[in-house]
Amino acid sequence: MIRRRPLALGSPLDASQPSFRATPLFWVGVLFAQVALMGLFVVDWRLSVVLVASIVIVTVLLDRPIWAVGCMLGARLISTSTTSFFTIGKVSIGFFEPVLLFSLVALFVRAVLDQKQLLRTWPWQPVFLAYMAFSVMGLTWCVSLPDGLKDIVGLLVIVCTNLVIVSFIETWEQVKLMVWFWIGACVLIGFLAIFGDHLGLTNYSSMWKASSSGGRETGLGQQPNWFAMNLMFIVHSCAGFALIQRDPRIKWGLMLSTIFIFLAMMTSGSRGGAYSIVIGGGLAALGQPRFRKWFFGFAAIGIAAFLIAYYADIGDLGKGLNRITNNIDVLFSQDIRGLNWAACIGMFNDSWGLGIGPGGYIDELQHYSDWLYHSVYRYPHGIFWGEVAHHGVIGIMLLGAFVVTITLMARDTINNTKGTEAEVLAWSMPASMAGYFAWSFVEFNFNEKPFWEWLALYTALYFVSKRAKAAEERGEPPQIPKWSLKL
After folding, report:
1. How many Å apart are CA 226 and CA 236, to the nearest integer?
2. Residue 4 has what pLDDT?
3. How high is the pLDDT of residue 399?
4. Taking the model in full, what pTM does it have?
5. Which residues share a beta bridge with 86?
6. SS in 3 state form for the chain?
7. pLDDT for 6
8. What per-residue confidence (pLDDT) applies to 484?
9. CA torsion, points 165, 167, 171, 176, in degrees to nearest 10?
10. 128: which residues sit within 8 A by CB, 6+ positions away?
């Protein structure tokens, strides 16, 4: 007796399958769905559009969960505050949130069907959970409860995205697919950043004081430094990813993509972005001879681009690069950062090292600098300083432990991937994180995107390399193709 395999979602329709028969319960469901969509349309027509699109996405992605992860990463990179549809309290709901929600639904259903274990421990998880627990405790003494709850919601989103990424990326091929998703999203963002204003597709420069006078690109409406940070993570890995490609067309395509993303990033005029690329690449070059060779090659390209920008008028790129070269000495000389850091230290001292709790920095800032409180520069200007103000001694200790656990995880990943294709990402991904850590001393907040998705992807690579190493020790065929970084 031949057993017919059930029709899989996304597969061609099998004519031998029994035809569908609509039952009364089916029509009740259709009627209920129409009434619900009509109600959402009355509230906000965009809600009904998002719901229909999300249902279609969920149905398709149930059969291909790894694509759900890729869509989530792409949405995280492309989504900005300017693309938000509405707000719930102080939480903005935009393009990323519904994609995340319905991707989580699809992946959870798939996990139940496949009996996949979602709860697992990764190296930096205990430190993060301890930080989250202390943040929740801080709600009892925080200055602003709505802002504190917003921070907690941000931490919960980090937990959800990391859980999805770590659970569903299980092979080297899937890691590479996610890198392709990331590169594609960044190329799209860079294209819109460079050509969007000229083609009339975007016009966000007037939204930010830092870019209102021209010369600083905002991408899809982000503050210029955040726009640069969004693109920064993939630069080292895109160049490294090109090394392991066997097709010369793909190899050179990736090299051109690296240069394009880097130049798009530099249109932001972000000094910290330029320094983070140099710091991350320099650290990787110190530890790996082949990266050292490539580092000097890209340094030559970068110097040539800066010289051309300095002596020629090449639009926004030239303005952005000239801002970096002409203003290197003013990164710390202005009072904006110093005033914020002084306020952070004041909050630390006045709370006896406990911190003011999550959120509430702006509310408390008025007691330390009235001018800063009424300006657009009222945030700690650095993750370390934010922890000094919000979580005090314990926050600083947890932040240090967090960096240590990531460093140890990177060391193990590099050791597990030696002699394989994955070794190039094992080096380049933490190089980007090292640049971000250095940059984060003067910019950003603890729960800033897309660092957490990048870290989750690297954590998935850690587990993939660990399983591959164990399989190799058992004498099984290699799970990651052999390749060497040796010159």
Report:
1. 18
2. 38
3. 94
4. 0.79
5. 93
6. CCCCCCCCCCCCCCCCCCCCCCCHHHHHHHHHHHHHHHHHHHHCHHHHHHHHHHHHHHHHHCCCHHHHHHHHHHHHHHCCHHHCCEEECCEEECCHHHHHHHHHHHHHHHHHHHCCCCCCCCCCHHHHHHHHHHHHHHCCCCCCHHHHHHHHHHHHHHHHHHHHHHHHCCCHHHHHHHHHHHHHHHHHHHHHHHHHHHHCCCCCHHHCCCCCCCCCCCCCCCCHHHHHHHHHHHHHHHHHHHHCCCCHHHHHHHHHHHHHHHHHHHCCCCHHHHHHHHHHHHHHHHHCHHHHHHHHHHHHHHHHHHHHHHHCCCHHHHHHHHHHHHCHHHCCCCHHHHHHHHHHHHHHHHCCCCCCCCCCHHHHHCCCCHHHHCCCCCCCCCHHHHHHHHCHHHHHHHHHHHHHHHHHHHHHHHHHCCCECCHHHHHHHHHHHHHHHHHCCCCCCCCCCCHHHHHHHHHHHHHHHHHHHHHHHCCCCCCCCECCCCC
7. 39
8. 78
9. 0
10. 158, 159, 402
pLDDT of residue 230: 87
Q: For position 171, what pLDDT does the model report?
A: 92
pLDDT for the residue numbered 39: 66
Beta-bridge mates of residue 482: 420
- The 8-class DSSP code of residue 91 comes to E
Mean pLDDT by 10 residues, the chain (487 residues): 38 39 58 64 62 61 73 78 55 63 69 70 92 94 88 88 86 93 88 67 52 56 79 90 88 90 81 82 75 68 63 53 50 68 92 91 87 84 93 95 96 93 92 91 87 95 94 89 77
Which tokens hold the place of 441?
């001393």
Q: Give pLDDT, residue 359.
A: 87
pLDDT of residue 94: 61
Nearest C-alpha neighbor of 416 from the set 374, 468, 453: 468
In whole angstroms, give the CA distance from residue 60 to residue 99.
13
Token representation of residue 180:
């392709």
Check residue 16 and give its pLDDT. Answer: 41
CA–CA distances in Å: residue 114 to residues 117, 118, 156, 358: 9, 11, 25, 38
Nearest by Cα to 256 from 183, 163, 342, 162:
183
Which residue carries 């294209």 as its tokens?
A: 191
| Separation between Cα atoms, residue 450 and residue 458, nearest integer Å | 13
Mapped onto helix, strand or coil, the DSSP state of residue 87 is: strand
Question: For the chain, what's the residue count?
Answer: 487
What distance lies between CA 261 and its chain's CA centroid?
A: 15
